[in-house]
Design a protein that fits this description.
globular; glycosyltransferase; Rossmann fold; Trehalose_Metab_GTase; 6-stranded parallel sheet; 2 domains; 15 helices; about 425 residues; 12 strands
């Protein structure tokens, strides 16, 4: 296991973007946790929303005086192929679960958990998603008084029963589980649950306001993409659930009504997702014949910021979605979003006020809604204003951190 490098964060930096009572509540909660040691464990330090959230949450907790560490699993491709299959199956579509897959999962988790023996004992460990759950056997023996919280970030509304049963062997033994939506709890075996919506960090390079020089630099870097012609963008990992092919179909339908329409499909590669490169190549091949489609990968955060900010419309046509914080990223930048009504997307888009919701398989409706927005400048501007305030109230990091620390403080108090 290894500890990722972390940026500097201070809670005072959020004073201009969030309510003062939330910051005071954070300081109060931090005082109650001042004598506790907390560890977060996940499977990757790069790519995907979980790593992004932890990169902000961990330094903020320490700035508040809560002794908090973050460790990332060390694993090979074989393990990540198993956990990717697990992720897909828990969201509704995956291969049969074999005894060999279970053995790979348990072996890698045990190897990582053994490394924790050299760490000072923690009062509470937060395990993120299914990948590190297999560490529980060893943690129970090595840290018998430690409270364990499972943080599930994925959509469990229609899981494979055999995978859910395997995961439930572990989740039934944690002390508490946190989900992103109440509908995700389902039949998962967990003793107690809380619902905490994820959030975006408004002061990161991806989400902060940019100066004119940075915007100009990133625009030049994105050449030949033009910011003078209409532009639709989707920002997502290259993952089958993000449905880049469906977004291509929606774009093609919209381009019949909007001359010179462009599409940017932007994605990164998560360290724990072996499917990413293969899907990127498939999407790039599908789009290659159209010079107005730009398939971009591993842009700097400032480049993603510029694209979300300068696009006319952002699309998030996911088939399944744990939460989809790229929606709030765009809305925060006053860009309306056309998104699927799955997962956490309907919590972020107020249909007809900040963007539009469509069925996950309805590329035609997505294309029509894109055209509706592109042809009405006043509507886009109004939706953008609404979007900014909606995200300010519900989906910025200080709100999430208040709710997270509330859960951890209650769990530690009960444990003591």
């Amino acid at each position: 296991m290894h500890a990722p490098s972390l940026p500097d964060r201070t809670i005072d930096a959020y004073a201009d973007v969030t309510r003062s009572d939330r910051l005071e509540r954070l300081r109060s909660l931090a005082d109650t946790l001042a004598d506790s040691r907390i560890l977060h464990v996940n499977s990757t330090a790069t790519g995907g929303g979980v790593a992004e959230l932890l990169r902000s949450i961990i330094p903020l907790c320490n700035d508040l005086g809560v002794d908090t560490d973050w460790l990332v699993m060390d694993a090979d491709d074989e393990f990540f192929e198993v956990t990717k299959a697990m992720h897909n199956a828990l969201q509704g579509s995956g291969p049969p679960l074999t005894e060999e897959m279970k053995a790979t999962y348990r072996t890698v988790n045990e190897e990582n958990a053994i490394e924790l023996e050299d760490e000072a004992e923690y009062d509470l460990v937060v395990i993120h998603d299914p990948q590190p759950l297999g560490m529980l056997d060893h943690l129970e023996a090595a840290m018998p008084t430690t409270a364990i919280v499972w943080r599930c970030h994925i959509d469990l509304t229609d899981p494979s029963s055999e995978y859910l049963a395997f995961v439930s062997e572990y989740t039934a033994r944690v002390d508490h589980a946190i989900f992103s939506r109440s509908g995700y709890v389902g039949d998962t075996a967990v003793p107690e649950t809380s619902i905490v919506y994820p959030s975006i960090d408004p002061i990161t390079e991806k989400n902060r306001a940019l100066d004119a020089e940075t915007v100009a630099t990133e625009r030049n870097r994105l050449d030949p993409l033009s910011f003078e012609d209409p532009l639709v963008t989707q920002v997502s990992r290259f993952d089958p659930w993000k449905d880049q092919f469906g977004t291509l179909e929606a774009y093609r339908r919209a381009s019949a009504d909007v001359p010179d329409l462009q599409l940017a499909l932007v994605g990164g590669m998560a360290g724990d997702d072996p499917e990413g490169l293969e899907l990127y190549e498939q999407v790039a091949e599908e789009a290659a014949a159209d010079p107005n489609v730009h398939v971009l990968t591993d842009l700097p955060d400032s480049g993603v910021n510029v694209l979300q900010r300068e696009s006319d419309v952002v699309v998030q046509k996911s088939l399944r979605e744990g939460f989809g914080l790229v929606v709030s990223e765009a809305l925060w930048k006053r860009t309306p979003v056309v998104g699927s009504n799955v997962g956490g997307i309907p919590l972020q888009i107020v249909d007809g006020e900040t963007g539009y919701l469509v069925g996950p398989d309805d590329a035609a409706a997505a294309g029509e809604r894109v055209v509706d927005l592109l042809e009405d400048d006043d509507r886009r501007a109004k939706f953008g204003r609404n979007a900014r305030e909606h995200v300010r109230e519900r989906f910025l990091l200080p709100r999430q951190l208040v709710e997270l620390l509330d859960v951890l403080a209650d769990e530690l108090d009960r444990d003591r």
